[in-house]
Amino acid sequence: MTNVQSLNPDHEPVFGDYIALMKPRVMSLVVFTAFVGLMAAPVSLHPVEAFAAILFIAIGAGASGALNMWWDADIDAVMRRTKLRPIPSGRTTPEAALSMGAALSGMSVVMLGLAANWHAAAWLAFTIFFYVVIYTIWLKRATPQNIVIGGAAGAFPPLIGWVAATGSVSIEAILMFALIFMWTPPHFWALALFMRSDYDDAKVPMLTVTHGRPSTRRHILAYAILQASLAVGLAFTSVGGLIYLLVTLVCNVIVVKDAVRIWRRDEVDAEADDFKVERSFFKFSLFYLFIHFFAILVETLLTPYGFGGWS
To answer: At what angle are helices 171-194 and 213-234 packed, to 10 degrees?
Structure first.
């Protein structure tokens, strides 16, 4: 846990510092996938109820981010890509992040229950608990499977959106969850391949640190194939259709092709071109989920006009 205790004396916290604690870039994916899950559901909410549901899911995600930054500030201070976050940079305090995260967690769960239903609120509460306690506090520093198991936390939003609309879980919701769950490990392992020194310095047992890069490359290929299978399978459910199928086939050909290239490379080749293939895989993975969930949204919006789905 963090040893960062005081603010930079030359900086007073501003609104933007507290927004940064909520990890807005991560929140954007959470909000979008939750929105698509809600929109794709066979039950429609009133627009005000739908807006409120997405808002409180987003706040819950932001609360999780603040609690993650509170606990991980010592790691964040060591790693190049995170050392400028609000706590290690001295723009705010661990205590402020803890208070903010705890308060927003409670508020988001209660308000989602009131705005949508208590089934969705229970899933949001479990997601926050899973991300903060199971992943951040326990798994992240304990096992190279941290990102595999912990990735479930980021996969729940479309399921929560679906449950907010319907009050129940379905195969479509489970498959949307599974797609994000399978996407998460290769996405972060590709990053770890060219950022391994960060995890070494922070003593985080990422797969690249505990098992080495060759093993990580094999894992990326295996998960990319599973990810592609789930993505294509989703096309044949009620949220899929011809448009989604064409999109996912193109995307996953790219993913599997690059995963094979990563698997075939040795460290001499990778270092010679500054991990060009690994960086390319990671950059495409940043857009992968947005593309897939946008395709689901298009199918949903076109269905009433006879163009979406398999109708």
So the answer is: 150
pTM: 0.92
State the total domains in the chain.
Answer: 2
Paired tokens of 149? 């198991």
d(CA 304, CA 309): 10
Residue 68: alpha-carbon gap to chain centroid? 13
Give Rg (Cα) of the chain.
20
Tens digits of residue pLDDT in 157-181 = 999 999 999 999 999 999 999 999 9
Alpha helices in 116-151, H assignment, sequence order: 118-129, 146-150
Are residues 73 and 6 in contact, defined by beta-carbon separation less than 8 angstroms?
no
Of 160, 162, 149, the closest CA to residue 39 belongs to 162
Within this chain, do residues 165 and 177 fall inside the same structural domain, yes or no?
Answer: no
Residues 270 and 190 in one domain: yes
